[in-house]
Amino acid sequence: xxxxxxxxxxxxxxxxxxxxxVSALVLHPLDLAKIRLQxxxxxxxxxxxxxxxxxxQTLYEIVQCRGLRGLYLGFTPNAIGAGSSWGLYFFFYExxxxxxxxxxxxxxxxxxxxxxxxALSGVITLSIVNPIWVIKTxxxxxxxxxxxxxxxSQITNPSLVIHSQSTWHALHNLWIHxxxxxxxxxxxxxxxxxxxxxxxxxxxEHFKNSYNTRYRGRSVSEKLSAVxxxxxxxxxxxIAAVITYPxxxxxxxxxxxxxxxxxxxxxxxxLWRLVSFxxxxx
Length: 282
Prior knowledge:
The chain is 68% helix and 0% strand. The chain starts with a helix and ends in an 8-residue tail after the last helix. The chain has helices at residues 2-6, 10-39, 55-66, 75-101, 111-140, 167-183, 187-215, 226-255, 264-274. It has one domain (2-274): Mitochondrial carrier fold. The protein has 282 residues and is mainly α.
């Protein structure tokens, strides 16, 4: 175990945390709009739910009601979740990869090994940070139209009674009203989402290694330029996003405090009644 830890690339942990926080800071408004669109039926079933159907319209409505600060509703758990997720993911992934390479950084692993290590890293990370993602989703779904006169007949979840304003309050209310099970809402579809990171890293490693060995004629351990990193990482991210996006819709709906579903199959059944899985892919 000591030898295993000695080979861990700690810089990947720091880089992952930093990158996760920075990306959350820059992209949170779009993430906020994405979550709201993912759960929006556009049918008026939920009285407090806006009927907006586009990203720009959703962001405009938030700014109109809350000001520019409203674009960062739920930012704190997003920053914590993104930073810890990417930091832990890189940490476990690089640890497993170094362990398999037995100290030889120039050793190229198989596609199945990359896929397995990425999947294992994703499962471990999700098990740790899933509660943070539940809180993030619920803070993002604090709608501007919710009032004190909100009809009790529309309340399907006790935690909705208290209009949470902070990460701590949301976590406290979630634990009090829903217990341990509430902290892990959306965990099952999240496991399917692990394939996102696995697919992304599999393609990334394949692109990087093929580029280094076949095109540049050098070792797989050679570092890439900033442009090369950006090209391979963005391409692999796009491929993974297109393949796995449906799970994000399912997870967001299961974590939504305004609706109650009887598991993953119930979410899928109701989704197919409304739109295809990719209808709201922006």
